[in-house]
Amino acid sequence: MENHHQKATNGFSEPTDYSTAGRVITCKAAVVWVPGEPFVMEQVQVDPPQKLEVRIKILFTSICHTDLSAWLGENEAQRAFPRILGHEASGIVESVGEGVMDIKQGDHVVPIFNGECGECKCCKSEKTNICSNSGVNGFKKVMTNDGKSRFSTKDGKAIYHFLNTSTFSEYTVLESACVAKIDPEAPMKKMTLLSCGVSTGVGAAWNTANVQPASTVAIFGLGSVGLAVAEGARARGASKIIGVDINPDKFIKGQEMGVTNFINPTEPGKPVHERIREITDGGVDYSFECVGNLDVLREAFLSTHEGWGFTVILGIHAAPTTLPFHPMELFNGRGIIGSVFGGFKGKSQLPHFAKQCMRGVVGLDKFITHELPFEKINDAFQLLIEGKSLRCVLQL
């Protein structure tokens, strides 16, 4: 890797020599060659950013269930190898391509898989955080500019991108629409969580559902996203937050995020939605499905109160199956919607959310359960597989 003069700042070594701008950088990356096989630490070539692109030095990256499913090749959209996965990270801008005006060398940033170009009809609307040009696209594996990858092996073999980000590399190249600038005083390790899990969950509670004070909430699946929903609901003053998970240990962690009641669906008794209706006088105001399972989605939908109950889908449903209820069931006043990246517009709204986290409105420390060096990425994935970690942060 190219050498830099470095200085200690904010808990990491920050590059102060940007002589690599415009040049190919050789650096270390964790490459998946075959689905399900261990990550291989490789020396890869990272090209300079092209028009409206940014090259970032990654400082910290963490692992999400979406990375796990992509590594296993579970989703057809993600089966493109060799590939550099990863989409939760924080870093420093090393160089920018032609036309990039809002980001410069040295900026502290987080990559965002659901970009915000600022120019399309959706970006100009306050009704959505979808971006027609740089939104999340599981099938995308190369850059938009020229249809090529910015990663390659030393012998010139292309290595594919992942979710607009590819953060399991010491350097990565993204479209500028997928880079959010944050306060340089923000703790970079914690800011890593804002790239996906915490923003997705908290945003679903704040932006998509707009949870109100004293309301009731049910969360199906207490992984990182589900617990982030709980943290968001707690911050909004929800009076009852019911966590549903087959792992009773999740309730212990959930209590830190505001979960007040716990239901294990594997225990004998009435269906989950009936139990929730009993303890909430007819059903919760908001339910969140964070598993990606149709049976769980139906329970989440039926657990809400008739007349106004609202269900938010956060789980990734890989198979193209239909929703598990009759259209007439919507006539009793319940609503349902999917949420991408918690409804946050990444470039324009994430910086403010980062400042809220810095003030302690959302507690990020609670989500980091493990920390390892980048070279231990296979160990980090095993922790996630075994259900032992919420977020394992890797330092590069």
UniProtKB/TrEMBL annotation:
Listed InterPro entries: ADH-like_C, ADH-like_N, ADH_Zn_CS, GroES-like_sf, NAD(P)-bd_dom_sf
Record-given protein name: alcohol dehydrogenase
Keyword hit for Oxidoreductase: yes
Any GO BP: formaldehyde catabolic process
Domain Alcohol dehydrogenase-like C-terminal: residue ranges: 225-343
Swiss-Prot/TrEMBL keywords: Metal-binding, NAD, Oxidoreductase, Zinc
The organism's taxonomic lineage, starting at the top: Eukaryota, Viridiplantae, Streptophyta, Embryophyta, Tracheophyta
One GO CC term, this protein: cytosol
Coiled coil segments of this chain: none
The enzyme's E.C. designation: 1.1.1.1
Catalytic activity entry: a secondary alcohol + NAD(+) = a ketone + NADH + H(+); a primary alcohol + NAD(+) = an aldehyde + NADH + H(+)
GO molecular function: alcohol dehydrogenase (NAD+) activity; S-(hydroxymethyl)glutathione dehydrogenase [NAD(P)+] activity; zinc ion binding
Annotated signal peptide: none
Gene3D superfamilies in the record: Medium-chain alcohol dehydrogenases, catalytic domain, NAD(P)-binding Rossmann-like Domain
Organism from which the protein derives: Malus baccata (Siberian crab apple)
Pfam families cross-referenced by the UniProt entry: ADH_N, ADH_zinc_N
SUPFAM superfamilies, sorted: GroES-like, NAD(P)-binding Rossmann-fold domains
Protein family per UniProt: Belongs to the zinc-containing alcohol dehydrogenase family. Class-III subfamily.
